Amino acid sequence: MANLLGVALFALAILVSVSLHEAGHMLTAKAFGMKVTKYFVGFGPTLWSFKRGETEYGVKGIPLGGFCKIVGMTAQDDDVDPADEPRAMWRYPVWKRTIVMSAGSITHFALALIAIWIAAVSLGLPNRDFPTTEAEIRQEPAVIALSDCVVPENASRACAPGDVASPAAQAQLRDGDRITSINGTPINNYGELLVALRGLKPGDTAQINYVRDGQPAKTSTVLAQTQRPPLDDPKGSVTPVAALGVGLVPTTPTRVTYGPVAAFGATGDFTRELAVGTVQALQRLPQKVPALWTAITGGERDVDTPISVVGASRLGGEAFANKAWLLFVTLFISLNFFIGVFNLLPLLPLDGGHIAIAWFERARSWLYAKIGRADPGRVDYLKLMPFTYVVILIGGVFTLLTITADVVNPITLFPR
Q1: Domain 134-248 sits in CATH 2.40.30.170
Q2: Location of each CATH 2.30.42.10 domain in the chain
Q3: Rg of the chain taking only CA atoms, in angstroms
Q4: pTM value?
Q5: Would you state the pLDDT for residue 153?
């Protein structure tokens, strides 16, 4: 039930975001004097509406987005009343049309920035200093997390019948203990713990000094055997090595909370990283199509494959059910930022396509004036319709692939 509630809440958050996107178009268009005749949340049959001034506002039956109707978006619009011609959007200066068309994406960026700032002062943002590389992990203090067993091969899996019990557990060590020496060899970090263990053999007795709750103590245990590659060559051949049956508990916090003022700087840093990640994700989209098809046809789902609104809502539901509030908010932030960037791509029918054409017209008119030729006028959108249909077709197929993958083989972040 909690998962379903989370899915519904995340889907509602997306619907609100898209509705505000359209509101951005509408409000800026009205501010410049353009005529807006309709603003609706959803598509399909009208459930409820009212008219205020010259604009009809309402809700439609299919809650999958929204739209606003601005009179005369292109010079080819044939439904413009003669009385509204002076207020047709295409007649306005290019900078005003640019603001109106980019207002939707700006709204998504604003929502993302506000959510980042709120997360920074309440939930905390991911710690940029948290160890992620092998070298950084090995510099962490040797604070241990106990394993129930020693997995006998170089693989991550749960304990299975027949696995050797953890020597650390037999020695009465606990999660959070910090190992300070083994057989007299000082241990200052997790890397030194690994090196010390590799200097011993399976079956050797290890005299272990450790600190628990600030108090030093000692114990001993007989080391088990496992299979691991060399420490300096993680892809090398595995050989039998001594094992203590512990992992690492990073002492560096995973997230950092900021004060209201410092949160602005943290928001800027997080946004820069998000922008880079979004651009890289867009660049990887074409090469992820085969991985999506593999997931649909029964293969393993790559967690780096794109997700649809359906997949994002499912992940939001998982985050809500597991009280992973930062993940829930981060999904909302990432989705808004991605939509904002995607909508600015210079392709019709996206907002960025209309912006690109407006500036192309402006640049062409300036160039023709410089060379003494007559202004060629507006771009004929009808001639661009084949390209527009291609973009719509590709986008539709890609959306269908992601939705199908999210239904038949969804990405999950929490074990079931």
Answers
A1: no
A2: 134-248
A3: 29
A4: 0.82
A5: 65
